[in-house]
Design brief:
alpha/beta, TIM Barrel
Amino acid sequence: MVGHLQTNKCKDAVTLFDMIESVDSLHLAQELQKRAEQAARRIRVLLEVNVAGESTKYGFKPEEVVGALQEINSMARLEVLGLMTVAPFTTDPEKVRPVFRKLRELKELCEDQIGAPLPHLSMGMSNDFEVAIEEGATIVRIGTAIFGPRSTLKVESSGD
């Protein structure tokens, strides 16, 4: 699945995936917990953080992450393994280095607070993954570099 995970898709997500990288709210975590309990599954998750504060993106605010992690970490069916962010798009990867650095620092703060390691940082895409790796990424999303740009789907009007 690509894009924002809505609560009405949690039942499918819990049965289809081993990891969900985009837990962006307590409400979503609670629904995943409920659906994982019903499916008798344990789901690995990453908390999505809107580090840059973009209004078009989802995720916890940086100042909410520690509290959210502590609450979600207490949910028996969810296993928090790290943090994820989507940086603003730019042709100069150095411009997003501070976003990646901030997420790494948040991960370190979270580890200190819960007293346990969070092994994953999911950040970086085809245009900036090298900088993300330099800042600690363990998971990068490089679909465009592998498959090329997405084509846009044209919908034809039926004239009705």
